[in-house]
Amino acid sequence: MTKKELRKKYKELRNDLSFDAIEDLSLQIANQALKLLIWNFENYHIFLSIHEHKEVQTDYLLHILNGKDKNVIVSKSDFKTRTMNHILLTDNVTIKKNEWNIPEPQNGFSVADNQIDVVFVPLLAYDVFGNRVGYGKGFYDLFLSKCKPDVVKIGLSFFNPEKLIEDVFLEDVRLDYCITPDTIVKF
């Protein structure tokens, strides 16, 4: 299937999930994450979930990261340049939804792309090769291309991988792992 077809399919699949199911599945994903050998790093980038899009709820992962005393980094998107400014999440950071309902930091200390060790990546779909389908703006591919070469890229999904995304581009950055409620897929 093409990215466009997969976006449509997985938006519908997520829309069919109840909010209670999303909470339960998100907790299962966070518990699966504990099995990965990624917890010796320092700087973890995580997306703040768009509730209205029924994304994997990252609150549980945030609790794990805070409990392990890790540096948590979140981003604010610049839609003109398709870039993201990364902010260290502290108690003093104010989070506010933008016009697309994306929760974003309004203040705080900037963190450079190359300082980030692990990135939890949002997605709609992914394939068995680690290719992902996002919302189509390219924010994460651009961001991940600027990270250090050994950054660990982890997708979060309620669903299993597709066999193949037909229209993968050279600029698309592959995942290292994708965590589902039942398993961890390694690429």
Automatic annotation (TrEMBL):
It comes from the Bacteria. One of its GO terms (biological process) is tetrahydrofolate interconversion. Keywords: ATP-binding, Ligase, Magnesium, Metal-binding, Nucleotide-binding. InterPro entries: FTHF_cligase, FTHF_cligase-like_sf, NagB/RpiA_transferase-like. Its cofactor is Mg(2+). It is an enzyme of class 6 (ligase). GO terms for molecular function: 5-formyltetrahydrofolate cyclo-ligase activity; ATP binding; metal ion binding. Its EC number is 6.3.3.2. Substrate binds at residues 50, 55. ATP binds at residues 3-7, 132-140. It catalyses: (6S)-5-formyl-5,6,7,8-tetrahydrofolate + ATP = (6R)-5,10-methenyltetrahydrofolate + ADP + phosphate. PANTHER family: 5-FORMYLTETRAHYDROFOLATE CYCLO-LIGASE (PTHR23407:SF1), ATPASE INHIBITOR/5-FORMYLTETRAHYDROFOLATE CYCLO-LIGASE (PTHR23407). Belongs to the 5-formyltetrahydrofolate cyclo-ligase family. This is 5-formyltetrahydrofolate cyclo-ligase. It comes from Paenimyroides baculatum.
